[in-house]
Write a structure and sequence with these properties.
It comes from Brevibacterium daeguense. Residues 27-195 form the Helicase ATP-binding domain. This is DNA helicase RecQ. By secondary structure, this protein is of the alpha/beta class. The chain has 25 helices and 17 strands. The strands form four sheets. It has a seven-stranded parallel sheet, sandwiched between helices. A six-stranded parallel sheet has the order 8-13-12-9-11-10, sandwiched between helices. It has a two-stranded antiparallel ribbon with strand order 14-17. α19 (407-424) crosses α20 (430-438). Bound molecules: adenosine-5'-diphosphate, magnesium ion (MG) and zinc ion. Zinc ion is lined by residues 375-377, 390-391, 393-394, 396-397.
């Protein structure tokens, strides 16, 4: 068999004129019996990379996919093109399953879809050993990565294929492409001899934008009304409750919004999904439970109202926009609470220390993307190991953000954290520390007598918003950390050099000066003095905190 017959399958079965990107090379390699690892962005056209070889080669191609809910659709779409496809999963009755098995053994199937948990059963392996197989396609292969964002235990069992079917070519495909995931999936699926096909992960038609969150629903509504009225979009929220509330709020404003999360009844979910796929202009408000394997070409925007847990997740979710190649928007609103909340979720989650460390690394990369002063696309592609030039198309390229030397305000903040601990013997969350810095007389603060503190009001020259921005950026850069149930602020690794005046720190955006600048000891000299004076204290706090961390098993931030 050769590429020409692959090309004729492309035309006669799928109705396409030409292969895209690496498709031709991958198809040729797999048709010839080689193993392959395929890294290609969402919408890049991974399916054809195994569907065509399965049609060209003798026997049945086994497609392993975690997406049971989509198997019926996939099989129907193939059948509509005259491909003999079927699936084996728990939705089939015993009789239906027996009929599919009979078709497989009689070599009457081109493609057979199943979930990994089905495949690794000894009964299934035995069945497959009696069938004629053209290939194994392992879709969403990043699910085998234990440190990734989509780990599925059953994927680990797929390593048996290497030994059980040494003569059947295997193709692993994913849209998650960090070098670490790539290495891990190659190892775990035992694809040592495979050829690797790594496509560029750039999605040039997607315009990335990350804005500061203040009234997320109003900001979202504004985005939809001014730029995407009547168009299809996906809005991602972290919690089910926020999905429900956001969908409701959009509907109240006349937008055709539907909700999707694991807490909704199955019928409602599939009805919503079907409407989203078939109709124009539906906005799907969803948790990340929605979207994997969804192939809707004309999604014009993907909005995040909460911070994704990793750049991989963000990239996959935003990648669902603009699969038709036309301009699309990836928009995210992000604020101080996102940082605190996500870190806290990790700290209080079950799971090994190593797992938590990994999750923290994922979030840190995500935060770095949010806070970057340079091109978002360059940053995203660099994360996936690709070099690129500034795109001219993202928010940072379109309107380069200004940096400002925030060393003095940051020293004030760090000093406030230390002084509150020393003079009050207490730690506080961001809100209260900002109140103290601004000398804000509210019942909450004055009750605890903070007005007597040396740091009271030293930051009154900056507005509350500017302070929140500072705290957010410092959290993102590990200068401070928010720990425990209440997210109290403590100093973190990068605080020392700034506090000691050895390093300056540049933050995003010039601050608007606050109206009520009633600085008490606001001069630069006074603060640097304060910071220098706090040095020994910083060292003491550091070792105390490390000890505390060891005892309580919390992260040793300071
Ligand atoms: P992935 O699995 O990589 O996200 P799909 O395999 O679902 O992507 O393909 C995405 C879309 O691109 C589908 O609508 C598919 O039909 C289309 N497509 C794939 N390859 C080609 C091609 N060579 N020519 C035209 N359209 C293609
Ligand atoms: Mg796919
Ligand atoms: Zn850019």
């Amino acid at each position: 068999m050769n590429v020409r017959s692959a090309h004729s399958v492309l035309e006669s079965v799928f109705g396409y004129e030409s292969f895209r990107g690496d498709q031709a090379a991958i198809v040729e390699h797999v048709v010839a019996g080689g193993d392959a690892v395929v890294l290609m962005p969402t919408g890049g056209g991974k399916s054809l990379c195994y569907q065509i070889p399965a049609l060209v080669r003798e026997g049945t191609g086994i497609v392993i996919s975690p997406l049971i809910a989509l198997m019926q659709d996939q099989v129907d779409a193939l059948a509509a093109n005259g491909v003999r496809a079927a699936f084996l999963n728990s939705t089939l009755s015993r009789e239906e399953a027996a009929a599919v098995e009979a078709d497989l053994l009689a070599d009457r199937l081109d493609l057979l879809y199943m979930a990994p948990e089905r495949l690794v059963q000894s009964r299934t392996l035995d069945l497959l050993s009696r069938a004629r197989l053209s290939l194994f396609a392992i879709d969403e292969a990043h699910c085998v990565s234990q440190w990734g964002h989509d780990f599925r235990t059953d994927y680990l069992g797929l390593s048996v294929l290497a030994e059980a079917f040494p003569n059947v070519p295997r193709v692993a495909l994913t849209a998650t492409a960090t070098p670490a995931t790539h290495r891990e999936l190659t190892e775990r699926l035992r694809l040592d001899g495979a050829r690797h096909f790594v496509s560029s992960f750039d999605r040039p038609n997607i315009r990335y934008r990350i804005v500061e969150k203040n009234q997320p629903r109003a900001q979202l509504l504004d985005l939809i009304r001014t730029e995407h009225a009547g168009e299809s979009g996906i809005v991602y929220c972290l919690s089910r409750r926020s999905v429900d509330q956001t969908a409701e709020a959009l509907r109240a404003q006349g937008i055709d919004a539907l909700g999707y999360h694991a807490g909704l009844p199955e019928e409602e979910r599939s009805a919503h999904q079907a409407r989203f796929l078939r109709e124009d202009g539906v906005v799907m408000v969803a948790t990340i439970a929605f979207g994997m394997g969804i192939d809707k070409p004309d999604v014009r925007f993907v909005a995040h109202l909460d911070l994704p847990k990793s750049v991989e997740g963000y990239y996959q979710e935003t990648g669902r926009a603009g699969r038709d190649g036309l301009p699309a928007t990836a928009w995210m609103a992000y604020g101080l609470n996102d940082v605190v909340q996500l870190r806290r979720m990790i700290d209080s989650s079950e799971g090994s220390a190593a797992r938590k460390r990994q999750q923290r690394t994922h979030i840190d990369a995500m935060l770095a993307l949010c806070e970057t002063l340079t091109c978002r696309r360059v940053q995203i592609l660099r994360y996936f190991g690709e070099d690129s030039e500034p795109c001219g198309n993202c928010d940072n390229c379109a309107e380069p953000p200004t940096g400002w030397d925030a060393t003095v305000p940051v020293q004030k903040l760090l000093s406030a954290i230390i002084r509150l601990d020393r003079e009050r013997g207490q730690q506080f969350g961001a809100g209260q520390i900002i109140d103290v810095l601004r000398g804000k007389d509210n019942p909450r603060s004055s009750q605890s007598g903070h007005a007597e503190l040396t740091v009271w009001g030293i930051g009154a020259d900056l507005s509350e918003n500017v302070w929140r921005g500072i705290v957010r950026q410092l959290l993102a850069r590990n200068v401070i950390a928010a720990v425990g149930d209440y997210g109290v602020l403590v100093l973190a690794d990068a605080a020392g050099p700034i506090l000691r005046g050895e390093e300056t720190i540049e933050l995003r955006r010039e601050p608007e000066r606050s109206q009520r600048a009633r600085t008490r000891s606001g001069g630069k000299a006074a603060v640097v003095e304060l910071a220098v004076e706090d040095q020994p204290l910083f060292e003491a706090l550091r070792s105390w905190r490390a000890e505390q961390a060891r005892e309580q098993g919390v992260p040793a931030y300071v």
